[in-house]
Write a structure and sequence with these properties.
globular; 547 residues; transmembrane; Poly_Biosynth_Transport; Polysacc_synth; mainly alpha; 19 helices; PG_synth_SpoVB
């Protein structure tokens, strides 16, 4: 893999990771503020609408953006830009029609969904969010097209703009509606409409990029892939052929995307009932489930979002090399993607394990859920690795393997919940989640080894980051344990925030330093980091620590 290809992938992955972090932080902020604005009742109505929308969005999008990204990357690698463009146009038209039908169907059936959700007043929020099903799938197809060209900036910018406009609409809309005395049902509807305004904003950003940069990408891509290894083959694809290829790839990806929220629903359907069977009251069981779902799982999902960004950049990169039958390059790209996922997720997992208690207090005022946070630290690592492995398999065309692994993991999760929750409470559910992701990751890894060969070695990828993480963990633990002896305590929550901030800061510095010392990152990889990469390379070169 050339240094240019390596840098392109790394820069794309990091740009998407930064966008994901910004979006997650905005999401965390609005959740707290919206609760204060519309109260528990309004929040309940809003939460009745959003899961229905999210499920229909997965169905209406049906994995098409990922499929578009894969096939665009393959055909551009072969120099067949015409087929890549046709794939995009067919997908955009199809998802626009499907999205429109889903939006109309949800709007007309809002009363039904409100009744089965338990509160007829939820109809307004469901109707308000329905139009987003028309806008978002089309926007996602445009993102997939640019990702196929390995241009990640359009996706990153549109994600941040979409989330910013969404959050602004949610908070301002809910406040204004309540200010004029319309009640919590309409305030929840105003908040739900944020998905529509955010989707429109993201779509407009993508439309701008499409108008401004599409020709440049297509022309540049044509020249980039005109090598001696590439013979331009312009075999015209019919619309039916394109649809068959897209559906073959998109359906298992979509089902895999549905399995992930299904895993969360396993806890929603089992944990509270199992706790009540063990003698807990309804209030206590619901409270414990809130500790698991509202604290531990939310913290686990941030590194998973970063891994998803890596997967988004990795899949078309692997697909491109695989289309050219470049086995060595394919293996190198998979290894690089795996290394990046490990480099991000391993220290995050250890950090959550060591600082679980102060993080819990800093964010949620008490330490009632910190045991689950510590346990799910391990799940953070295995879920991130599983996502990167799934992206590699999808890039190779093995789309059903990640789906099978997730299904096995989910079945195991259900069984372990019934076995462990009665004995260990919500910690048992956290253990079950960790085991399920571990099994899914192991299954994906073994399948990838069979497809690619022994060049994919987890031991080689792990030992240097593990060494750096061990040293980082020792320093972070020392900061945590010695904090009380400094006599700086003012307030338990402020104290927890400070020890978390200092521990994380020290950990990051030590971790990056040890990665360079161990030779786990190269100058090319460091320089791919936006803004800070080149200065870091200069600093380490002056120190004589990097070539």
């Amino acid at each position: 893999m050339s240094s240019t290809s390596s840098k392109t992938f790394l820069r794309g992955a990091l740009v998407l990771a930064i966008a994901a972090m910004i979006s997650k932080m905005l999401g965390s902020v609005y959740t707290v503020l919206l609760q204060n604005v519309i109260g528990d009742s309004g929040m309940g109505l809003y939460q009745m609408a959003y899961p229905i929308y999210a499920t229909l969005l997965v169905i209406s999008t049906a994995g098409f953006p990922v499929a578009v990204s894969k096939y665009v990357s393959e055909y551009t690698a072969l120099g067949d830009v015409a087929s890549a463009k046709k794939i995009y146009h067919v997908s955009f038209a199809l998802l626009s029609v499907v999205g429109f039908l889903c939006a109309v169907s949800l709007y007309l059936s809002a009363g039904f969904f409100a009744r089965i959700s338990g509160d007829p007043k939820a109809i307004y929020a469901i109707q308000a969010i329905a139009p987003a099903l028309f806008v978002v799938p089309a926007m996602s197809t445009m993102r997939g097209y640019f990702q196929g060209w390995q241009m990640m900036n359009p996706t990153a910018v549109s994600q941040v703009v979409e989330q910013f406009v969404r959050v602004a609409t949610i908070l301002i809309g809910a406040y204004v509606v309540l200010h004029f005395g319309f009640g919590d049902a309409f305030a929840a509807a105003a908040a739900a409409f944020g998905a529509v305004s955010g989707g429109i904003a993201g779509f407009l950003v993508m439309a701008y990029y499409f108008w401004r940069y599409r020709k440049k990408a297509e022309d540049g891509g044509s020249k980039r892939f005109q090598t001696k290894q590439v013979t331009k083959v312009h075999v015209p694809l019919s619309t039916v052929q394109i649809l068959k290829r897209l559906l073959y790839y998109a359906i298992p990806v979509s089902l895999g995307a549905l399995v992930i929220p299904l895993t969360s629903n396993v806890d929603a359907l089992t944990v509270t009932n199992l706790l009540k069977q063990e003698g807990l009251s309804q209030l206590a069981a619901t409270r414990d489930f809130g500790l698991l779902a509202g604290r531990a799982f939310k913290l686990m999902m941030l590194p998973a979002a970063l891994a998803g960004s890596i997967g988004t950049a990795l899949m078309p990169s692997v697909s491109q090399a695989n289309a050219l039958r470049q086995e060595q390059d394919t293996s190198t790209r998979i290894l690089l993607g795996m290394r990046v996922a490990i480099l991000f997720s391993l220290p995050a997992a250890v950090g959550l394990f060591i600082l679980g208690k102060p993080i819990d207090i800093a964010l949620f005022q008490n330490s009632a859920g910190y045991h689950s946070i510590e346990i799910l630290g391990a799940a953070t690592f295995f879920s991130s690795v599983q996502i990167a492995l799934a992206a590699s398999l999808q890039g190779l065309g093995a789309v059903y393997i990640p789906l099978r692994s997730l299904l096995v993991g989910t079945i195991l999760k259900v069984a372990l919940n019934f076995l462990l929750v009665p004995h260990f409470g919500i910690d048992g559910a956290a253990i079950a989640t960790t085991v399920s992701y571990t099994v899914a990751a192991a299954m994906n890894f073994m399948s990838l080894r069979r497809l690619v060969g022994p060049s994919i070695s987890m031991t080689k990828m792990l030992w240097k980051p593990a060494f750096a993480t061990f040293v980082m963990g020792a320093f972070t633990f020392a900061v945590y344990r010695q904090w009380d002896h400094l006599g700086l305590s003012v307030d338990p929550r402020i104290d927890a925030f400070l020890v978390t901030a200092v521990g994380v800061s020290v950990g990051i510095v030590v971790y990056v330093f040890m990665l360079v010392v161990a030779g786990s990152v190269t100058a090319t990889e460091l320089s791919a980091m936006p803004k800070v990469g080149v200065p870091l390379v200069r600093f380490f070169r002056r120190m004589g620590m990097i070539a």
